[in-house]
Design goal:
The protein is an alpha/beta fold. The chain has a single domain, classed as Ribosomal Protein L25, Chain P. A six-stranded mixed beta barrel has the order 1-3-2-6-5-4. It starts with a strand and ends with a strand. Part of the 50S ribosomal subunit; part of the 5S rRNA/L5/L18/L25 subcomplex. Contacts the 5S rRNA. Binds to the 5S rRNA independently of L5 and L18.
Amino acid sequence: MSYTIAAEIRTEIGKGSSRRLRHANKVPAVIYGAGKESISIKFNQKDIINIQENKDFFTGELTIAIDGKEIKVRVQAMQRHAFKALIEHVDFTFA
């Protein structure tokens, strides 16, 4: 199954800006890989909370739509909140 997540480029980076994003129900994330420049992104919590429950979310390729461009990625790591059903941060690698 193929998943597409709409995202935006993050201009503010750091702990404080990530906290502000989480309070606004956004998830900070990064896309990185060998030989390519990393991209800091953000997307809505509701866009990922349901699809991350499927096991092929972690094993298959996802599509991230940023400014009309589609980037194929794989999930590298994901941090969840300790006791709430929230995603704190996601690391993607270029597929």
